[in-house]
Design a protein that fits this description.
single chain; mainly alpha; 4 helices
């Protein structure tokens, strides 16, 4: 898999994860698919970071990819705690929320952070790879996407 494909695949897998878990009263198999997809997200986050590290892409993109990997590992750890419903009966009196509910909230917030950062990395890498920052545009102008020359192979094949 090419790096740009892996970067965009991560976004779509996280998006599908959201759709999976938002299914009300979902069947048990949905939980297992969620776990497998979560492990795939961690693997892709590692692959993406490792491959980006080997490029000359700007440092900020590498740092965001690194933090995306770290957040995906944290999500996996939290997911391990959520499976056996750790803290379901322990309520934090001040806010009247269970430890389980707090873990779930952190898990979901991290998922939003991962999809956001994955999108930022994918777009930044794509623009860097295509040298899109080399040519600036006129303020107020929104140029059309460049059209490939007839017979030319796609740049990302």
């Amino acid at each position: 898999m090419k790096l740009w494909q892996a970067l965009y695949a991560m976004i779509w897998i996280v998006f599908l994860e959201f759709l999976l878990v938002m299914t009300p009263d979902h069947a048990d198999w949905v939980t297992y698919v969620h776990v497998v997809a979560g492990l795939l997200i961690v693997a892709l986050a590692y692959y993406n970071f490792d491959q980006l590290r080997k490029t000359a892409v700007p440092a900020r993109v590498k740092r965001i990819a690194k933090s995306t990997l770290q957040l995906s590992v944290l999500m996996a750890i939290l997911g391990v705690l959520l499976l056996p419903r750790v803290g379901e009966t322990w309520v934090i009196p001040l806010i009247n929320v269970s430890i389980y509910g707090l873990i779930l909230l952190i898990h979901v917030v991290n998922a939003f952070a991962v999809i956001t950062q994955a999108a930022a990395v994918a777009i930044a890498y794509d623009m860097w790879e295509d040298k899109e920052f080399v040519k600036e545009t006129v303020p107020g102008e929104v140029p059309a996407a460049p059209m490939p020359k007839p017979g030319a192979a796609s740049p990302k094949t």
